[in-house]
Hints:
- By secondary structure, the chain is mainly alpha-helical.
- 51% of the residues lie in helices and 4% in strands.
- The chain contains 8 helices and 2 strands.
- The protein has helices at residues 10-27, 44-62, 83-99, 116-119, 121-138, 146-156, 161-164, 183-190, and strands at residues 106-109, 112-115.
- The chain has a two-stranded antiparallel ribbon.
- The longest helix has 19 residues, at 44-62.
- The two termini are 19 Å apart.
- 32% of the residues are buried.
Amino acid sequence: MNTDTAVPRSDEVYDRGLDFFGTVVEQVPAGAWENPSPCAGWTALDVLGHLGGNIETGTKLLRGEQPEWPNRERPAEAVDGEPGAYWQRLVPETRAALAGADLELEVDTPMGRRKVADRLAFPAIDLFVHAWDIARAAGIEVEIPEDVIAFSHSYIDPFPTEMVRGEKGAFGPEADVPGDATPSEAFLAWTGRPPR
Length: 196
């Protein structure tokens, strides 16, 4: 990781992530949505449904509303209609909520009282990581921007390992990093994904 890279704010990463994710969704061939993804047991469409559900929940949180947590057998069930159109319906509402959010407001979270800006950090990271998951399932090459990698480390590294990895964490054990790994590949291995 380049330690000289300026670390952006969570709302900036989130906003850019919406475009990054959308660009990947637009490139997925119709027949590739049922391909297995790097997320165990999930297809590319499941990843889209999972991320879309998180974005809808995040939009309600940004508005100060109490969301209902989705309860579906398969995340793909959240995708209503054609995948690209489903994603594009979510983005304007999400951006409007982001623009009007009080990022300094403190809210209750599973990790205690935290500012909305802090709570936004993990969904922002998810937009890039899950974009890669879908891209991998569809055979599309993407690179995670280095400032997003720096942001991810700045947010996640301070947490104890048991909060980040394993059954209760968002990531699995770190994967092996190839000797000639790109920054994206090293980052994805850090999230527990075999980068190749």
